[in-house]
Amino acid sequence: MAKSRPPYPPEFRQQMIELVRSGRSPESLEKEFEPSAQTIRNWVKQADLDQGRRKDGLTSEEREELVRLRRENRHLLEERDILEKAAAWFAQRGSRRSSSS
Fold first, then answer.
1. Rounded to whole angstroms, how far apart are CA atoms 26 and 37?
2. What is the CB neighbour count within 10 angstroms for residue 49?
3. Helix, strand counts (H, E) of the chain
4. Which string of b and e fits 26-47 if b means at least 16 CB within 10 Å?
5. 13 by DSSP, 3-state: which?
6. Helix (H, G, I), strand (E, B) or coil at 81
7. DSSP label at residue 3
């Protein structure tokens, strides 16, 4: 299993992004600092998306909204399932009463 570490501070990420934009390669930064070259490339891509330099992905704001909407949808589906089960239970219980009268 991969090691888990706390996220890098935003200031550190921003510094890596600026170094790449100034001409340093993610591979050279990987050797000097801890994050992998791919991680640094991901940070640069996300920063470019957030700043409108790229259009081939979601901005951080859009990504957060998508997560929120998926969570809300999951919650609503759970509520619907509970209500369906409750309605079926009450319908079954009601039919038992009317047949026993």
1. 5
2. 19
3. 4, 0
4. beebbeeeebeeebbbebbebb
5. helix
6. helix
7. -
Q: Are 26 and 41 in contact (CB under 8 A)?
A: yes
- Distance CA(7)–CA(24), nearest Å, equals 22
Predicted pLDDT of residue 4: 80
| pLDDT in the model for residue 56 | 95
Distance of CA 38 to the CA centre of its chain: 19
Q: What residue has token string 């509520």? A: 79
Series of mean pLDDT values for 10-residue runs along the chain (101 residues): 83 98 97 95 97 95 98 98 96 75 55
Tokens found for residue 48: 């470019």
Q: What is the pTM of this model?
A: 0.73
**Residue 40 to residue 58: CA distance in whole angstroms:** 17
Q: How many CA atoms lie within 13 A of 31 on its CB side?
A: 4
